[in-house]
Structure formats: C-alpha cells, structure tokens
Amino acid sequence: xxxxxxxKSNTLKTQGGSQTLARGLAxxxxxxxxxxxxxxxxxSQRLKIHRSMGYRLVKTLEQCGFVERDADxxxxxxxxxxxxxxxxxxxxxxxxxxxxxxxxEALEMTAFLVTYDGESAVxxxxxxxxxxxxxxxxxxxxxxxxxQGAPGKVIQSQLNPSKFPPQPFEMSENEVxxxxxxxxxxxxxxxxPPAAIAVLYLPHDxxxxxxxxxxxxxxxxxxxxxx
Length: 227
Fold this sequence. Notes:
- The protein is α+β, with helices and mostly antiparallel strands.
- It contains seven helices and eight strands.
C-alpha cells in the first residue's frame, strides 16, 4: 500500500482516467490504513477536497457497501470490500500453501503468511515441519501490532517506507511470543494489502541471511503465481 504522499499523487495524476474513481480508491486506502475510524472531515482533508465533496464521495461508497460507519460515526471498510478481499485471499492461500509447506520442511521451522487487515498484522495460514517433537503453532487469525515482530516490521515498512525503510529481511525475538524468534521477508503482490512470509523458531544460532534467502525465493514464486 503506498504512503499518503503517493495516494495524493495518484489522485491528482490520473493520466486520462477518472479523477472521481481515483479519489474513491484513495479514500479506501486512507480508511484502511488509519489506526482508528476516520471522520469524513479528516478524510476530506487528507484527500485535499472540500468537505461537501467528501460527504458525497463517502455516501456513494456507503451505498455500494465499500464503507460503513462505526457506532461513533467513524468510517471503516465495509462488508462488500471484505467479500472481494476474501476472494483474493483464497487465491493467495492456494498459491502460498505449497511454498509454506516446503519452507517448513527445508528449515524445520514453522512457516506462516501474514497480511495487513487495516489495523493489525494477521496470520492467514501456516505450515508446521513434520516429524518434529516440538512445533510452534501460529494459527490463522492470530493478530499482533504492526511494527511488532519480524512480519509486523516488514508490513510497517510497506505502509510507511519513508519512515521505516524496507530491509531485505527483518528479525525479532521475544516481541510477540516470549521465547520465540522470527525472520520475515516482504511478499510483494500486484494488488491487495501489504504481506510477508516468515518463520518462527526457538532461539539458537542460525544463518539468518540463508533463512531469509529461502523465504525471499518462495515469496518471488508466490508473487509470480499471483501476477
């Protein structure tokens, strides 16, 4: 997902396309990336449009089911958008499953796929190595804060690369789960929210760069399938 500056630029430079559609898509990105439900006034300000235009834009998005309001009137992503996202997620899970299984076996570590749900880093799927007495479960649906843990740091760098410059890989230890270490790399997709693939392991001496290379090659294969 592009940073706010990129959203503004895309809104202004549609290269012959629909400026209204560009604003609507930019609005969805802003709503999705906001840490809390955002008001119409704040959304209009970030889009650099008059508040009355912002209300009309939001009304259209609401009527189409792409935007909803919380109990306090703040804007959140709607169920229609979630339905579309589930279709993309299903394809992503299919593409990632064999890669995660191969990573788990090759590295003898828990491999998992993480994405951004608009608020947190959330695990979509995972794979455990076979024939090991001790495994580290990472159940689908588990969430943790963006910027926390290796995959959370990867996603943070995709959301705000100017403030958190992307690295080839990220590492963490004792950040999300005490006594557990993680290594993660970015998963670049043609569309959809920021994503990462990662491994969990009991802390011990490992060649982090070699582990990251295995993850990076897998991420590239997944990206190619999803292109």
